[in-house]
Amino acid sequence: MLAKIRFVPWTVSVPVLAVVALILTWGRELPGVVVAIVAAFLAGAVLAAVHHAEVVAHRVGEPFGSLVLAVAVTVIEVALIVTLMIGGGDKTAALARDTVFAAVMITCNGILGLSLLIGALRRKHAEFNPEGTGAAFATVATIAALSLVLPTFTTSKPGPEFTSAQLAFAAIASLGLYLLFVMMQTRRHRDYFLPVETTGASVDDEQHADPPSNRTALISLGLLLLALVAVVGDAKSVSPAIESGVAAAGLPQAVVGVVIALLVLLPETLAAVRAARRDRVQISLNLALGSAIASIGLTIPAIAIASIWLDGPLLLGLGGTQIVLLSLTVVVGVLTVVPGRATLLQGGVHLALLAAFLFLAASP
Predict the structure, then answer these.
(1) Which one of 6, 183, 187, 211 has the minimum C-beta count within 10 Å?
(2) Can you give the residue ranges of every domain in the chain?
(3) Where is the Sodium/calcium exchanger membrane region domain (predicted)?
(4) What is the mean pLDDT of residues 20-33?
């Protein structure tokens, strides 16, 4: 009798193949066909990262689980920004600003709006905890203003730049607020970030399903790290094609930052949509706002450290159009969060702001 053939799950094989593609293509000029193949492995590695992050998140429970994917995504973002800025010179001086701002707009309008829209379609209203969501949104607004708005108005250095002391202050403040938020989310006010029943009471849905074993979680953690390495490396390999494509299309350099943010936030978006479809809107909002906080709170300190050996200026200050979009996002977000429930209209408003950001990024 023939032995049964055991197929390796795609969530295991794809990260391994993506790393093999990375090894074979690293540091080489790639033809178009190879770029397409590497891009396919890159997309597969992103999807695999989502799966394994969700396995680990289920094992550790909420709200710790939401932090797993948020931190993983931020590691990808920082690695991509630093690798592209090394040797990029003045052309990449604003890449960190463009990527971080794009991440804030995508999370606070795109992921948040899509989650509310899906939640409201399932029920009359999408319900969530206003205490935890409001605290997270306030943290996003504060660190975004400190890191991205203030450089436009400071006078110690010409242009939208911080001095070394100002950059150090912004980095320490951003990191401090991020750590304070994590402490509140995981310890002191953990119940503020748990899913909300229609009756209004907080409930931890993880208790209704058996979590994976420690062995399964550890295997997923290893494969998650492998997938993240593949995402960073393969994205670096295809980034010249992205930059040349943007230039050939006559689009602004800021579009490169938008593409990076869209790529690295794909796992968060998919995970948030899945949570919203399971009527766990609070988890979706945890993912969205947690990613925004991590994106600034961890990226700015990392870029501040990297600026020690990076050549060229570091432009962090937003322009007038971007400040208007950020201000509108903050105002609309506050009005969305305060009631603790949202309708289709509020989800649509946030998605309209995302559409405006994407359009103006391509056509400033």
Answers:
(1) 6
(2) 11-362
(3) 34-186, 220-360
(4) 80
